[in-house]
Specification:
Keywords: Methyltransferase, Transferase. By secondary structure, the chain is an alpha/beta fold. The protein is built from ten helices and nine strands. It binds S-adenosylmethionine.
Length: 310
Amino acid sequence: MNTSSPLAADAHFSDTWLTLREPVDHRARDAQLTHAADHWLAQRASASTAATLVDLGCGSGSNLRYLAPRLHTPQRWRLVDHDPSLLEHARSRCDTLASAAGEPIQLTVHEATLAQALDEALTGADLVTASALFDLVSAEWIDALAARCRELGCAVLFTLSVDGEIHFQDSAGKTLEDGDDRFVFDTLAAHQQRDKGAGEALGTLAPTYLKQAFLRHGYHLREAPSPWRLGRETWPLIDALIAGWRTALLEQAPAQATRIENWYRTRLSALDAGRLMLTLGHRDLLALPPDSPPGMSFDTSFETSQDRPA
Ligand SMILES: C[S@@+](CC[C@H](N)C(=O)[O-])C[C@H]1O[C@@H](n2cnc3c(N)ncnc32)[C@H](O)[C@@H]1O
């Protein structure tokens, strides 16, 4: 499963779940990377032409609702997903969005799988973006995406990729982790790597794999953490998340049902009582093509030597 979704056994997600997570996602995202993407687009765009932005696995449009009003350039958006009902939600809720400069955006939706999206849907893209997607995809698909983006010379902004960091903290901020938590986190990670229809899924390995794939194509990278910090005030999201984990754990380790049910009840009641907080790690990545306008390359301290392939 997608740690950030309870409903991903087959890579289909409910609008209810995506709506629950949207405000928490928007708070968690790294604003500086959006700012840098805005700057890059402004330098690249000609004054008269709208930039083409493609949102892969757009769901009901959360990523677009975050980005469009924060980008100053005129925008032509292409939303891609394999789920027609989510695409319809996205279209109806994003139709009236405007750029940060007040210019209405243009919007088209494309019902396509991620594999199909690499050809036509990416044509002419200036910026390819996605949120909460990459744990579902395979290494081969990321390699193909990075090669295609390099061919197009576009930038990419990929946010909220789960990185496997999960922590419970008590009210004093102390991390609590016992043998059952470790069993649960390992079992969730194994469940995440199941094939979701696009090859063996990378799960929590995706953020590192993404960086390496774009570095291999000469991109300049900047990465930032974007963790969820969940407490009693985000109860409906926590409740749905932990229920989804329970389902995934029972699928992955049915012989451990008693252990899983005990863990679920104990952790859920402590969260409900406000005795625990839950931190769930994500990473955001902005990658700019090698031939970006002068002044747009990042401080290379963002690229560590182990990131750069030999
Ligand atoms: C976790 S949701 C994220 C949705 C949205 N980006 C957001 O942040 O709310 C993942 C999205 O990817 C889509 N998706 C998953 N696998 C896909 C595939 N193989 N082809 C096309 N879309 C896919 C799902 O339908 C879903 O909308």
